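Hi there, hope your week has been kind to you so far. For a while now I've been wondering how a particular protein folds. I'm sending you its amino acid sequence along with the backbone structure tokens. Could you read through the record and tell me how the tokens relate to the sequence? Take your time with it, there's no hurry, and the full record follows here.
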Amino acid sequence: MAKIQHFISDSMCLVMNGHNPPRPMPHTHTHTHKHNTMAPKKSTKKSHFGKKSNLSESEEEYEGPLNLLLAKKPFKNPNYKTVKKNKNLKQILTMERDKVYALDVPTYENIECAPSVLPQKKYCDITGLNAKYTDPKTGLRYHNAEIYQFIRTLGVPNVQAYLASRNAAVVLK
């Protein structure tokens, strides 16, 4: 359809400019094709299915499915070894953990060292952020003034629950 429209538009331009448009080529295909709509005929040869063939013993050996494990592979190098692949950190740590060492061999677990000289980090009991301040009345640590306002609204049982979460609860008698 697009070719026809293109041909018509080209011929219109030529006519408007005073040229004669080219004539389309006549259809020269004269004979008709016979399309076979029937199914193909069955072969007249007798099948040899189930009959013993006249093959030699070496050819009969390969009847049935081919077992690739028993087949010879002349293209494979029997001395070829794959290149060791890199192990990821998780594999290395698992191997390190599962390995049994003698008691006198130093490992990360059995090396004793002095305690750290850095102060222990303190975290807000409400949000878990770094705690810059501590409420003197309740002993709760907090991050900013907004959280301090929230702490002021807490009751005694709630304050005790927050302190118990970091093992700093005061037992009241």
In short: The first helix runs from residue 2 to 16. Strands lie at 133-134, 141-142. The first strand starts at residue 133 and ends at 134. Helices lie at 2-16, 57-60, 89-98, 145-153, 156-165.
